[in-house]
Write a structure and sequence with these properties.
- The chain is α/β, with parallel strands linked by helices and 404 residues long.
- It has 2 domains: 7-14 and 261-403, Aspartate Aminotransferase, domain 1, CATH 3.90.1150.10; 19-259, 3-Layer(aba) Sandwich (Aspartate Aminotransferase, domain 2).
- It is 43% helix and 13% strand.
- The protein has helices at 19-29, 44-61, 75-89, 105-115, 134-140, 163-172, 192-195, 233-236, 244-259, 261-282, 309-318, 338-342, 347-350, 364-384, 388-403, and strands at residues 7-8, 69-72, 96-100, 120-124, 145-149, 176-180, 199-203, 214-218, 286-289, 299-304, 321-322, 353-357.
- Strand 6, helix 7 and strand 7 (199-203) form a beta-alpha-beta unit.
- Helix 10 (261-282) packs parallel to helix 14 (364-384).
- The protein is globular and about 75 Å long.
């Protein structure tokens, strides 16, 4: 029996659990099951583990205090908490929020909800690299603006945003600043004091931690109305018995990710360069999107003219390669990627997108296998496409006219 090779290249969607994180979690999934909020001594171990995990997250973010870190169920809850909490706390000050057109749906959908409840949202455009201009942010500010939210790194094209510059602008106008750093934390240096943001959200499963656990960094002097009401957990800010095992796993995974980051980023840059060069050289009418330099390590989103990205994904899956056509949170939608639309791609081009994102577990052999497999898949699908020949003729005609 031949075992099909599996190459996981969708690390922007989720990452495999690091062995060290699993090992750290196991005691709290078995014998050490105590509730950290209980008063008896048996619960002390769980409370100490939770405190240690909070310290690890704070240290990784260079947060000035451990108590500035609040555990959540993940990035989506964190984003919702920041937006709804800010809207409630600052309702008397104003009801205007600024964000970008390329944010994760956790941001965009809460903005849509707030718009239905009396708030106004400005969605800023980005350039063809997916970068928002800080000057555009400042122009959008109004007297009633209460929150500016710009993601630190885009989850589809990998472009890193100028959050530090934007935070400076926000604070000069007395406005709270939030960044969704789910895609960035654990992969590039993230220092909340250097960025000077008021709120930052992250999720454990994006850097080798478990799913179902995340955190919000909240700067001293800010406060948010609880999103989840219950007991007095998280210093009265988030009700619900704490996910001790999840927090422990996230803390261990992020500590490992930060400690290995310099070498790992260098390694991934080498692999992604090899992957990009080979795909762009071997496959005609293929394009790589996002900032070519200021981008997340390992993130690659290509478009292949004349065919559907979903067909490529299915063919790659049959070959044992896991990839996606964009954000995993919207992969079931037939609508083109809002990120690719925002950077100016027409609908038909967006539909031919494939995202290949490398992680800590990927090897050069994995990249070689993708390079050996993908060109044949694209060629076969193009041979089957009813529009491919017409597309090529159209492109050749354009080239002829340009030369003339």
């Amino acid at each position: 029996m031949t075992v099909k090779r599996i190459v996981y290249a969708d690390n922007a969607a989720t990452t495999p659990l690091r062995p060290g994180a699993l090992g750290a979690m196991m005691p709290y999934l078995t014998g050490e099951f105590g509730n950290p909020s209980s008063m008896y001594s048996y619960a002390k171990t769980a409370k100490e583990a939770l405190d240690k995990a909070r310290h690890q997250i704070a240290a990784a973010l260079n947060a000035p205090r451990d108590r500035d870190v609040y555990f959540t169920s993940g990035g989506s809850e964190g984003d919702n908490w920041v937006f709804k909490g800010t809207a409630d706390v600052l309702a008397k000050k104003g009801k205007h929020i600024i964000t970008t057109a390329i944010e994760h749906h956790a941001i965009l959908n809460i903005c849509h909800w707030l718009s239905e409840h009396g708030y106004e949202v400005t969605y800023l455009p980005v350039d063809k690299m997916g970068r928002v201009d800080p000057a555009t942010v400042e122009k959008a500010i109004r007297p009633d603006t209460i929150l500016i939210s710009v993601m630190l790194a885009n989850n589809e094209i990998g472009t890193i945003e100028p959050v530090k510059e934007i935070a400076k602008i926000a604070h000069a106008h007395g406005i709270w600043m939030h960044t969704d750093a789910v895609q960035a934390v654990g992969h590039i240096p993230v220092d909340v004091q250097d960025l000077d943001v008021d709120f930052l959200t992250l999720a454990g499963h994006k850097f080798g931690g478990p799913k179902g656990i995340g955190a919000v960094y909240m700067k001293k002097g800010t406060r948010l109305t609880p999103l989840i009401h219950g007991g007095g957990q998280e210093r009265g800010s988030r009700g619900g018995t704490e996910n001790v095992a999840g927090a422990v796993g996230m803390g261990a995974a992020l500590t490992e990710a930060v400690n290995t980051m310099p070498a790992e980023e260098k390694r991934l840059r080498v692999l992604e360069k090899k992957l990009r060069q080979a795909i762009l050289e071997k496959i005609p009418y293929c394009h790589l999107w996002g900032d070519p330099e200021n981008r997340m390590p390992g993130t690659n989103l290509f478009t292949f003219s004349g065919i559907e990205g979903e067909s490529i994904i299915l063919a790659l899956d049959n070959a044992g390669i896991c990839a996606s056509s964009g954000s995993a949170c919207s992969s079931a939608s037939l609508e083109p990627s809002h990120v690719l639309s925002a950077i100016g791609l027409p609908r038909e081009t967006s539909h031919g997108s494939v995202r290949l994102t490398l992680g800590y577990q990927n090897t050069e052999e994995d990249v070689d296998y993708i390079i050996a497999t993908l060109p044949g898949i694209v060629a076969r699908l193009r041979d089957m496409s009813p529009i491919w020949d017409d597309f090529v003729k159209s492109e050749e005609t354009k080239k002829t006219k340009e030369v003339a």
